[in-house]
Design a protein that fits this description.
The strands form two sheets. This protein has a seven-stranded mixed beta sheet with strand order 1-4-3-2-5-7-6, with helices on both faces. Strands 8-9-12-11-10 form a five-stranded antiparallel beta sheet. By secondary structure, it is of the alpha/beta class. A hairpin with a 2-residue loop joins strand 8 and strand 9. The radius of gyration is 23 Å and the shape is elongated. Helix 1 crosses helix 2, helix 5 crosses helix 7 and helix 10 crosses helix 11. It contains eleven helices and twelve strands.
């Protein structure tokens, strides 16, 4: 259950027109012009990025509801959340909702906290888009993580400016700018101890790998990685549209025509297969899954079906080649 505080509309705090304030405001204004009108919600952690985003959103959007997730992973987290809510109201948010969550164990603490956080935000957003405080630096870290995992172009596209309902207005803004904005308007951000804990891969990328790359390559690395992600997303949008056309052409009822797929370019074929698997209920698809299903089309040697995740208790979701068609069915587990 959330804890909620409210404020009267129209009490937005006037911001000084410093360089940092204007840069963040321009970023938020541009995002709103492209993706949303009216009211928005902001995911507020109390850190510099989300504080800066909230301060700018209050000025640029019609009304702002602040959503503060309390992961309850640290002693005193409830006090941190309450302070963030109070700050949101002081900045001029229409309301501030504290959302306590229980973090599970699946996939490690980082992944489990992320799942719990997004689930809570989705329930509490009331149909509004939710603005997230991811910056250019976060984007660079995401691209590096994708490169390290070697999962193909999709994994290094980084974060999109808008994937309904999640909006990221600050992807072209450096983390140093959000910190400067907080200084300029007299806010003291919460410094999450997890953001300096070396056991987390992203923290080591932030504190060790990216600074070393900047030093070795003479600077500009974070911005270059963010540009790469943007270019890949543009290319991917075109390829996805072409893959959709291929998927329609290959469709044979719920199955796909092997002949149509086999005579298509590999990049489009694999994208079409991926979309077909996801639409059919596949979960947590990996490059290994896609490669194995693709080989049912292009390297057929009589091999059996490929389990692709998903399914139900006691039954696996399996892609198989049958009579010139690629099929996807639930099968009893062995």
């Amino acid at each position: 259950m959330s804890r909620t505080a409210g404020a009267m509309p129209g009490n937005a705090r006037r911001l000084p027109e410093t360089e940092a304030v204007l840069e963040v405001r321009r970023a938020v204004r541009g995002w709103l012009a492209d993706y949303a009108t009216g009211d928005v919600a902001v995911a507020l952690s109390g850190g510099a990025d989300s504080l800066a985003l909230t301060a700018a959103a209050v000025v640029e959007a019609d009304q702002v509801d602040a959503l503060i997730v309390d992961h309850q992973l640290q002693k005193g987290s409830d006090k941190v959340a309450a302070e963030a809510a109070a700050t949101a109201l002081a900045l001029g948010c229409r309301s501030a909702h504290v959302l306590p969550v229980e973090v599970g164990n699946d996939g490690g603490m980082e992944a489990a906290a992320r799942v719990a956080r997004y689930a809570a935000l989705d329930v509490a957003r009331g149909g509004l888009p939710v603005l997230l405080g991811h910056t250019l630096d976060d984007q660079a870290e995401t691209v590096l993580l994708g490169l390290g995992r070697g999962s193909g172009g999709r994994s290094i596209q980084g974060m999109a400016a808008f994937t309904d309902p999640w909006g990221r207005p600050l992807l072209a803004v450096r983390r140093a700018v959000t910190r400067q904005l907080c200084i300029d308007i007299g806010l003291t951000p919460f410094e999450d101890p997890h953001n300096s804990a070396a056991e987390f891969t992203r923290v080591r990328l932030r504190n060790e790998v990216l600074p070393l790359l900047e030093e070795v390559l003479g600077g500009g690395v974070a911005a270059a990685l963010a540009r790469t992600a943007e270019q890949l997303r543009d290319d991917s949008a075109v390829l996805d549209a072409l893959a959709d056309e291929l998927l329609r052409a290959a469709s044979d009822g719920p199955a796909l025509s092997i002949e149509t797929l086999a005579t298509s370019p590999a990049a489009l074929r694999r994208r079409a297969i991926r979309a077909w698997l996801l639409a059919g209920g596949a979960k947590s698809l990996t490059n290994k899954h896609l490669q194995a299903v693709d080989e049912l089309v292009t390297a057929w040697r009589g091999q059996g079906g490929v389990a692709v995740g998903g399914g139900t208790p006691g039954r696996r979701l399996v892609a198989a080649r049958e009579h010139g068609r690629l099929t996807l069915r639930l099968q009893g587990s062995r």
